[in-house]
């Protein structure tokens, strides 16, 4: 089980630390809106608890501890892109650090955490699309047949299409062939990175 988890994490990290093959032109940036501070145990586009998108790796480690499996492969080039589970983070929570900065937080199998809209791993795509309405941008899954898909919603600086604005903040629900969420990513443009089939 541990070997499978490490292999699964490595597969996600190797595939996730890169942008999609095609990048449409960025959309104009809407004006930022003020956000109500979330509960400490809720994932938002801005972060989770003490974790805030834009923190340094050192700040992430101060908040939740160092990589719980430092020998595991966290990315093809951990100095430029690394994904790992901090030692004191809740089960199933992973952080993505690019060039020393926290760019996204991921929820994976085993996580019981929820987003500020009340969704997490195992929830139905239909419920997520209904809750977000026109704010949900749906795109086909890169590696799996429908109903697998990506549902992305931006709270700051994003729109339909591929978003490159480093100040953008959003949440992406990665849905599997069952129609249920397999991963949740929150943060900046790296939430758009796609994983291979696990």
Oligomer: single chain
Strand content: 25-35%
Q: Report the helical percentage.
A: 10-25%
Number of helices: 3
pLDDT average, as an integer? Answer: 82
Largest sheet: 7 strands, antiparallel
Widest sheet: strand ordering: 4-5-6-11-10-9-8
* Domains, number: 1
Span between N and C termini? 14 Å
How many β-strand runs?
Answer: 11
Q: What class do helices, strands and sheet pairing give? A: alpha+beta
The best one-word shape is globular
Uncertain residue ranges: 1-14, 20-35
Radius of gyration: 15 Å
Q: What is the succession of H and E elements?
A: HEEEHEEEEHEEEE
Name some characteristics of this structure:
198 residues; alpha+beta; seven-stranded antiparallel beta sheet; four-stranded mixed beta sheet
Task: Provide structural commentary.
- With 198 residues, the chain is of the alpha+beta class.
- The protein has one domain.
- The chain is 16% helix and 26% strand.
- The protein is built from three helices and eleven strands.
- It has helices spanning 2-16, 57-64, 125-132, and strands at residues 42-44, 47-48, 51-52, 81-84, 93-98, 101-107, 114-115, 137-140, 149-156, 169-175, 181-187.
- The strands form two sheets. Strands 4-5-6-11-10-9-8 form a seven-stranded antiparallel beta sheet, covered by helices on one side. The chain has a four-stranded mixed beta sheet with strand order 3-2-1-7.
- It is globular, with a radius of gyration of 15 Å.
- The two termini are 14 Å apart.
- Residues 1-14 and 20-35 have low confidence and may be disordered.
